[in-house]
Amino acid sequence: MSVDLILAASALWLATAILSPMRSLRPLLRYLLSAGCVLGVAACLIALPTAPPRIEFPFALASQRIAFALDPAALWLLGFGLVPAIFACWLGSPLSGRSGTWWAGASLSLLGALGVFGLQDGMSMLVAWEVMSLGGAVMLAGERAREAGGKPVLLMLALLEVGAIALVFAILLLDHASATIGFGAFSAHAPQTSALLSWAAGIALLIGFGAKLGLIPFYEWFPRAYSSGSGATGVLFSGVVLNAAYFALSRGWNSWLGVAHDSGTAFGLGVVAIAIGVVSAVLAILFAFQQDDWRALLSYSSAENASIAVAMLGVTQLFRSDHLNDLAGLAWTVALLHLAGHSLAKGALFLVADGIQASTGNYDIVPRGWIRNSGFMLGLGALFAVMSLASIPPQAGFVSEWYVFQSVFQGFHLSAFTGRLALVLAGAGLALAAAVGLATFIKLFGLGLLGMPDPDYQRPVPRRSAVAVGVLGLCVLAVAVGAPLWLNALASGAQTLFQANSPQAMVSGWLLVPLTDKFAFISPSKLIIVMPLLALIPLALLRLTRTRPVRRTAVWFGGMTQHGRDALTTPLTFSNAMRTFYSFVYQPTMSTEREHAQREYFIKRLVFSEGVTDLFERHLFEPAVRIVTWCADRLRALQSGNLNFYLALVGGLLVAILALTLV
């Protein structure tokens, strides 16, 4: 039955892409897209914890019979990625207008992601990967990306094509080793694959899929592309698309490279993944903290969370190198749990951003008292989502972050000092990322949703957006509270890869444990009961000790001010201390422009602008662009239109051919 639901979802998404140019059928598109997402979620729920049967299609691509199959890890990531996509597709993009372009792009992204999750050969998977990337570009083109000249979309496509070239290289290497491009053959020949080929293919896969995951230096396309689109686009990018990229990388490393039989390759790739993942996470969340646009901040956070998952993939390889299969299964499961909670929480906050845009026309992080004006459901969902992404108990993000550190703390089991040192340094880097992440989401919630109401923006967030945010927030809590039940869905996948049922060992009754309750344990299921009861203690003390009424007065702001909003903390004020402390990373820029009336003493207009330097754009992308431009200028003569020059080229080519035949 799950296979039939997947096929039905694919048919609905394909129908959306076909019908999107027809203006009269536009109202139908949201129903088709969201219904397909609902069927996809239902298929995942029905199939887990086992994998549905493999589908063999009656046609081939590059002489390879096309097949489709979803293993438990794919079902897990696909299902959690599609839950927020249901609401994003139902609400649609507030920036798309009456165009059907966004709907076509969303359907292509979903179809491409489904293909990345399930197609079983290299050629068809590469086609699905390109369809997924094209769908993202089409979504952005259907919104306001044209206002920036299309540069954010072009940067995204350029960097993703660098990744695509790396993927083609990896597939060719694995095809050379196994004499076919089927994934089954990749896995079967993995034990015989040479260490050099495994290393080259592994690094190529990390670059290729890392371009979509936002690893360094690719994460710099995230804020540009996300900020040129809507929150609905961000939901798909940070949910099902991001999950598909991570699944493909995890599948490639764990199944195709022979890491289970070559300890040296597993160890080396693990150290590389940990280093890149941790550095990417720290840089991404540091730059997220400086953003004053909802979409830019959340996009950097998506890169940070994907980087944490990649770091856990590296931890998996380190444990495999020492044949600690139960710990390898623990780290593998933690990465999947982390991305599950991230998909739901990030989807909720992107929909909050769209709701604010519907009320104000922009995505600025400005204190306007949205929770007070927009009702209980918006506040509940946004609070739960922010708590999760800030790793505050008892939310899903806290559970996965706790497991991340518990996995890193298991490094004392490794025999090599280098491995133990790598995990110690990883723990320090991840702790820094977690601390900055907490500050980032305090800023987002405190400045973006709290504060005094703004009389210029009395219109609340639309009710349907608030309800969608509330439902997703409750789903975030449900993932944490029900973790003892949900983790069993990954048991068969871990058993297949590592011959160890780590997900089942992570649960002890209502306790969550890192394989044993002798080391550490938590229980979100009990915390959800205990924490409200504990909150009664300070509330009772406050009630009993209150002897004087609360007195409210104006804020002192360099003198008394008539308007309380003049004394509100701004995003720049909140983040300036961190910008100063980490100035060697941010390389901040500030400029002031003055417009005078008659004499310089009478300033008519003062414009202050500030920002931070994008490291890789300045030191990598811009030099690359200058080199390409220089080469293009030198080769411009080839397009001069001079017939004699072209005849000379043809003559030279004929002489060269003749010389080769005579040698």
UniProtKB/TrEMBL annotation:
Cross-referenced InterPro entries: ComplexI-like_HydComp, NADH_UbQ_OxRdtase, ND/Mrp_TM
Localization, UniProt: Cell membrane; Membrane
UniProt superkingdom: Bacteria
UniProt keyword Transport present: no
Chief subcellular location: membrane
GO biological process: ATP synthesis coupled electron transport
One CC-aspect GO term: plasma membrane
A GO term for molecular function: NADH dehydrogenase (ubiquinone) activity
Topological type in the membrane: Multi-pass membrane protein
UniProtKB keywords: Cell membrane, Lyase, Membrane, Oxidoreductase, Transmembrane, Transmembrane helix
PANTHER family: HYDROGENASE-4 COMPONENT F, NADH-UBIQUINONE_PLASTOQUINONE
Name of the protein in question: Formate hydrogenlyase subunit 3/Multisubunit Na+/H+ antiporter, MnhD subunit
Source species of the chain: Paraburkholderia phenazinium
